[in-house]
Amino acid sequence: MGSGHDHSSAAIAAPRKRLLAVLLISAVILIVEVIGAIRSGSLALLADAGHMLTDVAGVALALLAVTFAARKASPERTFGYYRVEILAAVINAVLLFGVSIYLLIESWSRWNSPHEVEGGVVLIFAGVGVVANLVSFFILRGGAKDSLNVRGAYLEVVGDLLGSITVIIAALIIMATGWERADALASAVVALMMLPRTWSLLREAVDVLLEAAPKGVNIAEVRAHILEVDGVIDAHDLHVWTITSGQPVMSAHVVVSDETLAGESARVLDELHECLAHHFDVSHCTFQIEGLDQASKETPGHL
Q1: CATH class for domain 10-209?
Q2: pLDDT at 60
Q3: How far apart are CA 81 and CA 63, in angstroms?
Q4: 219-297 CATH, one of 3.30.470.20, 3.30.70.1350, 3.40.605.10, 1.10.10.10
Q5: Within 13 Å and on the Cβ side, how many CA atoms surround 133?
Q6: What is the C-alpha separation between 246 and 201, in angstroms, rounded?
Q7: pLDDT single digits (tens) 251-266
Q8: Helix and strand tally (H, E) in the chain?
Q9: Which of 59, 80, 164, 251 sits at 20 to 30 Å (Cα–Cα) from 278?
Q10: 251: which strand partners?
C-alpha cells in the first residue's frame, strides 16, 4: 500500500531558466578569460578560465539532467529519469577533480620557471570575471537548496568568484612588485579551493546512488514514530533513501494486531502517512500492513 504521489516533474524542471542564464554568462566569460590569459601570459587567469570551463560543462550537464528529469515516468522507468541529475553531478565532480590536478601540476612548473605576466591585463579580465560571477551567484542562490545540480553550479560560481578575486590580488602584486611567481601561487590557490567543494558534491551524489538515508533523517527516530501509532506492534524492513534532490522515499513492513488488521488498516495507513510527512518531510511512503502471523513467517530483514 502506498501514498498518493504523482512524481511531478515541476520541482525538477524549475531550475532550468536559472541554469540556462548562468550557462550563457559562463560561456561568454570563458572566452573572455582565455583571450585575457593568452594576451597576458597569466596561468592564474587561465586557471580561472579552466574553472569556468568546468562551469560550462557542469551547468550544461545540469541543464540536460533537469530536461530529462521532466520527462514522464514509463512502465520501464517507474521513477522516470530523476537519477540523471545525480549522474550529472558525479560527472561534474570528476571534471572538477581533473582540472584541479592539472592546475596544481602546471602551477608547480610555473613556480620553478616563472613566465612574464602582464599584471594590468590580468586585472582587467579578472575584474570582468568577478562581475559575471556575482550575477550568476544571485541567479543560482535561490535554487541551491532544492537541487544537487543547481547546488553544484552554485558552488562552482562561488569558487569562481573567489578564484577571480585571488587572480586580482595576484595581478596587483605583480603590478606593485614585479614578483611573477604570484601568478603561479594564485593558480594553485584557485585549484585548491576547488577540491573541498568538489569532494562534498561527489560524496553527496554517491550517497544518493548508494541509497543512503537522506541527511537529517534518523532511521531509529522514524521507526520510533511508526511504533507510536495506535495499533502498531512492530516495524521491520524499514528503508529511507533519495531518488533525486528533494525526493526522499520510504518503505516499511508494519506489524499490527489482528483486531487492527481486520478493521482499522485504513486508519493506521492515514496516521502513518501523516506522521512521516509532518515529522520527516517524506511524502512518498509505501507500507505493508501485516498481522502477527504473517510477520512470523518472514525472513528477518533490515531493522
Answers
A1: mainly alpha
A2: 79
A3: 13
A4: 3.30.70.1350
A5: 26
A6: 15
A7: 899 999 888 888 888 8
A8: 11, 3
A9: 80
A10: 239, 286
Q: What is the pLDDT of residues 219-254, one digit of tens each?
A: 888 899 899 998 899 998 898 888 876 678 888 999
CA distances from 12 to 17, 60, 221 (A): 12, 15, 28
**289: helix, coil or strand?**
strand
Q: What is the pLDDT of residue 8?
A: 45
84-105: average pLDDT: 83
And the C-alpha cell for 4?
A: 498518493
Q: Which three cell numbers stand for residue 51?
A: 574553472
Q: Look up the pTM and report it.
A: 0.70
Assess whether pLDDT exceeds 90 at residue 172.
yes
* Sheet-wide strand order for 232-242: 232-242, 248-256, 284-290
> Which amino acid makes up residue 90?
V
Q: Which residue has the cell 507510536?
A: 228
C-alpha separations of 256 from 89, 225, 259 in Å: 42, 14, 8
* Residue 211 CA: distances (Å) to CA of 175, 200, 240, 247: 52, 17, 8, 12
What pLDDT, on the 0 to 100 scale, is given for residue 173?
93
Task: Enter the C-alpha cell of residue 147.
Answer: 537541487
d(CA 89, CA 82): 12
Q: Are 5 and 38 in contact (CB under 8 A)?
A: no
Q: What integer is the mean pLDDT of 121-144?
A: 85
Label residue 257 left, alpha or beta by phi (over 0 means left) and psi (-120 to 50 means alpha): beta
